[in-house]
Amino acid sequence: MENKSFNLLAKLSAWYDVLFTENNVAKVERGIINFALVGFLGHLFLIFLVKHFSFGSGFLAHLTPNYLKAIYTPFSIILFYEVLTLVLILPKSISIFIGKQYEIITLIAIRSFFHDIAEYDLDKPNIYTFDFLKEIGFDLIGALLMFFLTILYYRIFEKTKKIGRNSSVKRTRFINIKKVTSVVLCGLLLALSIISLTHWAGQSYNSILENTHLPNSNGVFFKDFFSIMIFTDVFLLILSFIYSSTYDLIFRNAGFVISTILIRIALTAEKPFNIYFSLTAVLFGVFLIALFVLFNSRFETKDVENSDKDNIVE
Fold first, then answer.
1. Residue 195 near residue 31 (C-beta atoms within 8 A)
2. Cis upstream peptide for 272 (omega within 30°)
3. What pTM value is reported for the model?
4. Which of 34, 120, 160, 185 is the most exposed place for a label (fewest CB within 10 A)?
5. Alpha helical stretches, state H, the chain
6. Which residues contact 163 (CB under 8 A, 6 or more apart)?
7. Angle, nearest 10°, between helix axes 94-117 and 130-160?
8. Residue 59 DSSP SS3
9. CA distance 187 to 191
10. Model confidence over 47-63: pLDDT tens digits?
């Protein structure tokens, strides 16, 4: 019975290898780049129309007449690709999977800067106030600190490669489960992107009818996606307990769930709390993986193959 379930899992995980070949991923990457370029040029053209022609009502009348706003469009498309790569790297390592989440929340902070700076007329000297610096500075300083912490996280993660890993059937089965999870998440990702875009388009249409500002797109898609990531992390936490019940690994994976929850809170929190929660999430992850390495450092002088630490599940 166990062999049958293992064979079924192997067949299901084979879809990951079929769908996400290096060639297919490269094609998607080229498509995303082309789409981002078209979106950038298209947004620039729409802003040109708004600046040089009069539109009393309709969609164009609600566009911000600032060319800097066009940067927001390709950056959002690139962020979507980053989320896709997040899903694809899941079978490789849970630690890298979490690190990719830190990369995404850092890029979201940068995207927020592009969104906010376009709301100001930089040619007017009276805009340079403390409120302006606070509005713009929080995103920049927060993104810079998160970038530094993410690099630090990966540097510490490199040291975990010295820790033994099990190459047995258990580890192979766990990787297959993560491959199946990755395929399912890709399906959810595409469905969620369509639903979120449709919902935002509906809100935008209502805003145009009521002659109000277009809804803020910062919270579109990402807050729902990271809600799914929380349950994905919990799912992987439970599985890691089945295949490896060491205290340090369970604590690390439970901590990763907390980190993802903090990121999810940051996506809907107002400034400056969104930056505080984002920084706390990344900082928590750095301390967590540093303590994990410290806890396992006592095994470095032992034969890894014969130690209890060869059951680590990544």
1. no
2. yes
3. 0.82
4. 34
5. 2-19, 22-52, 72-88, 94-117, 130-160, 169-209, 222-243, 247-268, 273-296
6. 293, 296, 299, 304, 309, 312
7. 160
8. coil
9. 6
10. 888 887 766 555 665 66
